[in-house]
Amino acid sequence: MGSGTPTTSGDNTGTAHISYSDTDNSSEQRQYRIITAPAHGVILRDNAVISVNSVFTQEDLDTGKIQYRHDGSENFTDSIAYVVSDGDYTVGITTTAQGAAAPTPAIYHIEILPTNDAPTLSATQTIINLDNLSAPNPITGFSLNDADLASLAMGEIDFVQVTVRLLNGDGTAFTNLAAYAGFTLAATAGTGSTVDATNGYLVISGTQAAVNTSLATLTADVPADKDAVYKVQVIVDDRLRDGSGNANGGSTNQNPTAGGAPTAIDTTTPNWYSVNEASAVPVVLTPNLSASSVTLYASSVNDLAILTNTNAPTINEDVSTLINGFTVSDAESLAFALPVTVTLSVPDGSLGIAGSSAQTSTTVNGHSITIAGDNTGTLVLTGQAADIQTLLNDATNGLSYTSSLNGNHDYNGGAAGDVSLTVHLDDAGSRIGGDVGSGSVAA
């Protein structure tokens, strides 16, 4: 019984592995009935799955129509139980031949040669704040897994190599060692793992468990207060570094298509200074490499948010009047597209924004701003600082004030008709930096 083409016997006669002879009948009449199906694969006839009680003939075996297809698991032995007859069996009868005792099933043992499975890499976080200038910033949540290493079989070796590198926010690579100046990636080598930081990026090698332990100690530090987006990418490679050209799961890669022939292990080594995030695992290396990235918000100091308005507009009672001249800025909001909240309030009359009708949200520069209290005495805007500034100063739909009916009294202890507009900026949504604890935290 073979896979793909008829599997010949050990004497190279070209006959199938299962072969019974009977001078009274032909190969079409000699029948095999499956009593117990394989546990880790399936039997196929002409590429169609057959199961318990299915019958195939000696001719099917001799012409290569009967195949075994492994399920891709890390189980490398299997078997089927079968009985053979010269055609006396009828459909549905499995234990009694005409005029004979029940047959004892024979066992056909199947040995599967291991092929290499692709490793996997997971990241539990999507954004991490690098918010501490005085202590290492932990980069947590990366974990690798390789099915070949769950239980080592013949030809499998417990070894993986991981590359940890920095990328710019757009996914492009740091192009040389000089680009890493001031940046520090670090991880601790342990029993069974080594860490090489020669090239600015890290190369961690060793057993799967030891490499995962080293990944758990990963830290990153950036020079000064960058207010910039970066990424850290981890790439796991299951190819051995012993000159054999093999991977940790064998000398060939498992075909991703069920039943497909194993594929060769490519020996390409990517240049981690040139390939960008999306190209880190080219198609030719997908059976051996896996990658995952986490975005880094680098801000070691939370910069002061700024809100100013030097205008003192003249307001006519009972008429909507635009108020502009606002400056709203926040370095972290600008760098990381994070929200701030601006609250405006008056003791009399109402404040409106984004048109005459009461709004709950609006879009500026393609970004959403939420609005609460439109056309009331207290207006709350939440969004990116630059977008809020644009909205407040819009010549048509910016901030407007309307007094209460005939409202021309003194509302702030000054002259008659004076009204104070109180404005407050809260940067809680974009507050990154100044961490003096254990280092970076999830955003």
Features:
disordered N terminus, about 450 residues, single chain, six-stranded mixed β-sheet, five-stranded antiparallel β-sheet, mainly beta
What does the model show?
By secondary structure, the protein is mainly beta. 6% of the residues lie in helices and 33% in strands. It starts with 30 loop residues before the first strand and ends in a 17-residue tail after the last strand.
Helix-strand layout with pairing:
Blueprint: E1 31-36, E2 41-45, E3 48-50, E4 55-57, H1 58-62, E5 66-70, E6 77-85, E7 106-111, E8 120-123, E9 127-130, E10 137-138, E11 142-145, E12 160-168, E13 184-186, E14 193-199, E15 201-206, H2 208-215, E16 219-221, E17 228-237, E18 289-298, E19 306-309, E20 321-322, E21 326-329, H3 331-336, E22 339-345, E23 350-352, E24 361-364, E25 367-372, E26 378-384, H4 385-392, E27 400-402, E28 422-426
Parallel strand pairs: 9-18
Antiparallel strand pairs: 1-4, 1-6, 2-3, 2-5, 6-7, 8-11, 10-16, 12-15, 12-17, 13-16, 14-15, 17-18, 19-21, 20-27, 22-26, 22-28, 23-27, 24-25, 25-26
